[in-house]
Structure formats: structure tokens, C-alpha cells
Amino acid sequence: MMATVFEKVAIIGIGLIGSSLARVLRGQGLARLLVALDANADHRRQAVELGIVDLATDAMDQAVTGADLVIIAVPMGAYASVAEAMAPHLGKGAIVTDVGSVKLAAIRDIGPLLPEGVHFIPGHPIAGTEHSGPAAGFAELFHGRWCVLTPPPGTDETAIQRVVGLWEAGGSMVEIMDAGHHDRVLAITSHLPHLIAYTIVGTATDLETSLQQEVVKFSASGFRDFTRIAASDPVMWRDIFLNNREAVLDVLQRFNEDLTALQRAIRWGEGDKLQELFSRTRGIRRSIIDANQA
Ligand code: NAP
Fold this sequence. Notes:
Blueprint: E1 6-12, H1 16-27, E2 31-37, H2 41-49, E3 55-57, H3 60-64, E4 69-72, H4 79-86, E5 95-98, H5 103-110, E6 119-121, E7 123-125, E8 146-149, H6 157-169, E9 173-176, H7 179-206, H8 209-217, H9 223-230, H10 234-243, H11 245-267, H12 271-290
Parallel strand pairs: 1-2, 1-4, 2-3, 4-5, 5-6, 8-9
Antiparallel strand pairs: 7-8
Helix pairs in contact: 7-9, 7-11
The structure holds NADP nicotinamide-adenine-dinucleotide phosphate (NAP).
């Protein structure tokens, strides 16, 4: 799909993801006018200084009026208020998309507030880092990574294809998926791993000072890899767990059962059970490397 040029693109939230998309749009000349809206004055200033947008504002009418593409890239807790504020300024035929990590909640919070004639194409790039803000973004963030779009049935096909073109311009592979399915898949591949990392790092932090120092000193033994994940943005992750409640609780239940089985195997010295599981999981790592997603 060839990317098409937009007359005016408004990026709502010029943080890690929003600014990376701005760099893609700017770098490839895909927006004649590129405007950022952000509540954070420092981020607005940085975005302009970095030269990745034409204009940065905190006035929704200025950002959105006349835009043929609006990209929502704020934490999901702000979705409903952002959608409500932009609705009166959206023109007929405008495309609204988002990058939020939970898709049923995005549809719930944004969909009903958009006026008729506006096309809503929910999206989620499976790419990111533990850093935040416009200075942390980079155009290559989406290279070789999947982007999932979850347009409800009946969504305008041309609008979908224009959003597909945008992500492909960023180097992504695009998959169209049902929103509920997306949320269940991400609960196990992303949300549960983050919850585990937050738990392990939190447990270590709660241990007394002497042990804490040893934890940092010997972190290369495995702990270090969890600390990178547990350094992810607290607001963004609070919102993900609040918004993907059912799916996360579901996989957490399964995980707890499997953990209890392992606990039992260790208690009863069942080495064959442990070895069998560890051998199976090694295969998963191999297939991730083979799929170029390592
Ligand atoms: P970020 O770097 O923190 O950027 C978000 C920006 O939006 C910040 O400048 C923030 O200002 C601003 N903001 C917050 N509330 C606002 C509001 N009500 N109105 C206007 N601006 C507001 O976050 P991000 O990592 O780019 O994440 C943005 C979205 O992308 C989230 O919905 C997340 O689920 C999704 N996502 C993130 C990743 C990832 O790895 N980071 C990956 C895929 C998808 P302050 O900093 O002052 O709050």
C-alpha cells in the first residue's frame, strides 16, 4: 500500500510514540501541515525545537480544525476527555486513529464521542521503549515491528488503507484484527510480563538495604532484564491494567495455576517436570528469533 499525503495531521500527545510518528510523517513528507497538541509545555517546546512539527499548541480547536488525520497518542486514561474536546472541531471525512495498548477500551472511550462522518481506525504499534517524551522518539522505532489495526466491522475501506499506508511508511507490518482478540493476545505477550517485572522489582525493593545492594551488584544474573521492563512509564501502565482488566485477570489466573504447579515440582524434587518445561520454553525463544522479533 502506497502512503498518501495528508493535508493536515494533528498528533494529540507528542511523547515517545507521537513524536516517532511525527518523525516518520516529516521524514517522508506525508503531512503538508503537522500540528502537535500536548498538555506538557516542555514537550510542546521540545517538539518545535526538534523540528518534527510545524506547530505545537494546547488549544484543541487550533490542533484539530481542518485536519484530515488525527492521531491520539496520550495515555489511555485521557482518551475520553481528549475525544470529547476534539469532537466539535472534527470535519466530515476526517480520519481519527490512536496508538493505545488496549483496543476494546479505546473503542469504548473514543468511538461514541466522534461525530457522524468521521472514520475511527483504532491502532496499536507493537513497538516501544521504556523512555517517554518527544526527545525519546525516533523514526526507526516501528521498523520491522507489527502494527495491529482493529476497525469495527463496516469501517470505510479507503480510510483503513490510508492508515495502513502510514504504518507501512514507518516500516511496520500491519495486521487487521478483532479488538477483543487483540486485548487477549496482548494480555499474555505484554501485560502479564510487565506485571511480573513490576512484582519482582517491587519485591527486591522491599528487601532490607544490605540485600538491595547485592541485588544491584549481581543483577546481571537475570534481575537486570526485569528492571528494564519495570522502568516503563507508570501512568501508561496504570491505564493499561485498568483498561484491560478482564483479559489480564484471566491470564493471571492461568499463570498462578502454572506457578503453583512449578512450586510443587520444586518441593517434591520433580526434576524431570522442571526440565521438560524449561526445554519447551527454549523453543519459544528460538521461534521469536526466527521471526525477527528478538
Ligand atoms: P509519553 O511519551 O508519556 O507521551 C504522552 C504525551 O501526552 C506526554 O507528552 C504527556 O504529557 C501528554 N499528555 C498526557 N495527558 C494528556 C492530555 N490529557 N492532553 C494532552 N496531552 C497529554 O507516552 P507514550 O509512551 O508515547 O504513550 C502514548 C500512548 O501510546 C499510550 O496510550 C500507550 O498505551 C501507547 N503505546 C505506548 C508504547 C510504549 O512502549 N511507550 C507502545 C505502544 C503503544 P506528560 O508527560 O506531562 O504527562
